[in-house]
Amino acid sequence: MSAVSTLETLLKKLTTFYGPLPVPPRDPFTLFVWEVLSVHSTPFKRDAALAALKRNRALTPDAMARVPQKKLEESVGLAGPYNEQRLRALRTGVDIFRRAPRLPDIIRGPMVPARRALKGLPQMGEGGAYRMLLFAADHPVLPVDAKVSRVARRLGFGDQQGNFTKTARSVRESVAKQLPGSPDAYRRVFLYLSHHGGATCTEGDPHCAVCPLFEDCPEGQKRK
Ligand code: SF4
């Protein structure tokens, strides 16, 4: 199978298979909170914690700084273990957002200052920074986390390189050849490849027998 011009076909199959998927928040601070709550959690627990923060009106930097500590701890605790680490990360993020009220504007601007502005935020590795640029700042970029990297390479987009950053670049370049430059197109690719990597194309034991991409997938064909 040539990877050229197949991405849209693959995405259509994934869209039919999984249906609509939830989209990360568009507001930069809420997305930062969502990232912190996502680590070592499940989508269900993360969303419960985020909903509790919303009920407590704690989803702006100023509001989170003011919310009673007990309410904050209880809400964040719904995401699961590592409460202390999450609370510390949130406190650091609150300080950064309050000290830099223009951060949401900066990340919507040119790429270099945008990436620099995100550097100090805790628990926002390369994947988190790219998610922020794509979902909260409308940059047409592909966040490559472990799941996206694995699924894309198994499907023939990009190659394993000497380290994760280089591998991610290889995936991005390969995918970009087939994508129109719109943020919506990149959001769709990220959402479906990442979800597929968690639900079906798992690391150790991909469920190729039930995968809707089996016929088109070089890795699936090797494994049959
Ligand atoms: S066929 Fe297997 S390796 Fe290929 S995308 Fe599907 S689950 Fe992953």
Notable traits:
2 domains, 13 helices, Endonuclease III, domain 1, binds iron/sulfur cluster, mainly alpha, Endonuclease Iii, domain 2, about 220 residues, single chain
Describe it for me?
The protein is globular, with a radius of gyration of 18 Å. By secondary structure, the chain is mainly α. The protein has 2 domains: 7-21 and 142-223, Endonuclease Iii, domain 2 (Orthogonal Bundle); 28-136, Orthogonal Bundle (Endonuclease III, domain 1). It has helices at residues 7-18, 28-38, 43-55, 61-66, 69-77, 83-99, 103-107, 111-118, 126-136, 146-154, 164-176, 183-199, 218-223. The model has no long low-confidence stretch (mean pLDDT 94). The structure holds iron/sulfur cluster. Iron/sulfur cluster (SF4) is lined by residues 151, 154-155, 200-201, 206-208, 211, 213-214, 217, 219-220.
Total number of beta strands: 0
State the helicity in percent bands. Answer: 55-70%
- Output mean pLDDT: 94
Please, how many helices?
13
Measured by DSSP, the beta-strand proportion falls in under 5%
Order of H and E elements: HHHHHHHHHHHHH
Tell me briefly what this model is.
With 224 residues, the chain is mostly helical.
List the helices and strands and how they pair.
Layout lengths: L6 H12 L9 H11 L4 H13 L5 H6 L2 H9 L5 H17 L3 H5 L3 H8 L7 H11 L9 H9 L9 H13 L6 H17 L18 H6 L1
Bound molecules: iron/sulfur cluster.
